[in-house]
Amino acid sequence: MMMLFQPPLPPQYAKLTEDEMCLAIAERKRQLGSRLVILGHHYQQDEVIQFADFTGDSLKLSQIGAKQKDAEFIVFCGVHFMAESADILSDDRVKVILPDLSAGCSMADMADIDQLEDAWEFLVEECGANLVPITYVNSAASIKAFCGGHGGACCTSSNARKVLEWAFDQGDKVIFLPDQHLARNTAYAMGVALDEMVVYDPRKRSGGLMPEQVRDAKVILWKGHCSVHGLFTIGQCEEIRRTDPECKILVHPECPWEVVQKADLAGSTEFIIKTVRESPPGSRWAIGTEIHLVNRLANTSPDKGVRSLAGIQCLCTTMFRIDQRHLLWALDELTAGRVVNQIKVDPETRRLAVIALERMLANVSAQPVAIK
Prior knowledge:
372 residues, Rossmann fold, 15% strand, alpha/beta, 5-stranded parallel beta sheet
């Protein structure tokens, strides 16, 4: 599991006001100029996103960062696996920095390489499965590399269907990790029955499965999930239908299958943004995704009614660890000639992870599509 420790910041950062931090960050950006690129994920808080040179989802940002030929430093305001992807796709001379090392991803941490190697031995050697491994980009570089080295590929929530279609052309079965919900929702939308899917639990012997269950399955779901999207429920959907029947429910496919079935639409973050922006004035939306994005959509589309599907704050707490203080500290250190919190993927892991990413990009369109 990826658990990195972020040392406390020097005490002077605790004394700074927000105005002081904003002025200082702007000055550091001016001093570093084109040598610096700041990437901000959609789920990042507004206080940080205002300083991003580019915003987007994790893979899009990594691709954009890699195209900035003058950049020496990429500061990724996201989580650890995103910074790894940026390092994988960038030139060796570019240093990728995560302002707070404790900004991990609970979903990515639900699958580590030792667990996957154990699973592979059981599924392939004991069950004789002709298996293709697919990993969501929300995974560690080591997991991406495993998939690249074993005939598999990566996917995003935008192109998961295309990648699964490709995988079924390569083998009899797919193991999809680490998010069981994206896999289940995508495969079901493709016509795979629920009883053709089984869940592999890495915490149990043989994943909690018998060999005959593996042989009968078409999709093997890794038991992982997003802690944010797991907070949305069918009860919340039913409450919207009861109190505001004209309101459309739009959710991310990392939500549980039951929630996606209750929704009007389900799709990636980019799909959610596009759908709301292109909807007619006066339309109303209850959105099942991270609260910072929902609030940003509400603020940028004031002619529409945008609210969270849940009555609770569905917050990505690890993303929230990237704040102005940590961003300023990282930029202060860069300005002083010191690189802190560099995220570096070893060459062999990088080589194999690139194969998994290239297989995805060779077989799919970048256009965001709905799951439902």
